[in-house]
Write a structure and sequence with these properties.
Length: 373
Amino acid sequence: MEDYVYYEGKKLRKGYTTGTCAAAAAKAAAAMIIKQEKIAGVTIITPNGTTLQLPVDKQQFDRHTATAAVQKDGGDDIDATHGMWIFAQVTLNAGGEIRIDGGQGIGRVTQKGIAVPVGEAAINPVPRRMITAAVREEIGSDRGADVVIFAPEGEERAERTMNGRLGIIGGISILGTTGIVTPMSDEGWKQSLSIELEMKKAQGFRKIILVPGNYGERFVEEQLGIDGKYVVSMSNFVGYMLKETQRLAFEHVLMVGHFGKLIKVSAGIFTTYSKDADARAEIMVANLALAGAPLPLLQRIAACTTTEAAGEIMVAEGYSEVFQTITDKVKERAVQFLKYSKPAVDIDVITFSTDRGMLASTCDISTIKEAWR
């Protein structure tokens, strides 16, 4: 693959995710079992529709089991996993089901709060679907397969990531929602987001939905039933994108995001990179304290590594109303952020969690659904 983006006159090469590598390696391994010969490369179509021809190495096979590896190439976005080998071992089974697990160097989820259940390998849902589809394409509909994804360098590489703070132990995560890595600086990223807003405005949109990322977009479409045409990603640039909606004179902004992301805005944090401002536990503790929560509960919340885990404790202890309190504060902060410039922008906020769905809204949810149809 030779695909590029341009930023400040620099030509930056795109790459592909660990999820794409895992799917390609699994496809090659499955093909070797069926064909009983080495496979030098495979074709993969990523979730965003990009077709990749990827080289395969380190092949081994017999009648029922095969192993292959694909080297991660992040393009000009050099991250912790760039250059490492992602392996897949595929073993046929008679059950007809494709089962996926992680082996050496793939982290295990030990705490609630991400898209993978506790105890399972840290292979995210989109890569799992990619792997399943790739293997099924090779083995047909009648056979089953056990797929183990592994990365011998994974445990060492994971030390350069945030996995430990997320409760993912023992290795890297297999990630990717589009399958493609697009290198871009923050300024270039902001510019691309602005361009999308400008396109919406030019198409006659008077209102817009801002989400932090793909999970927010899926929630808007699948849980709220609102057309995705209204959705624009704000990534971690909440304040910047709010200012852009005001500059472009959008009349109404609906912010929809995971509670763990938008909670930061309730404390006036408008650039939400965790590396820069990870005050989630402190914000929850402060709001629970104002609600009268006892010290032992505050200490339990402070010890949580994810807002999902903290949220479960809050619900169990009878403090669900704090979700609404914090969501209201997100709106208040956003309104204050824009109040000294014109034109005025109406703002509403919806927060959700992975396990519980919608947590709170600053407007009646049926009214929101009707307004955005």
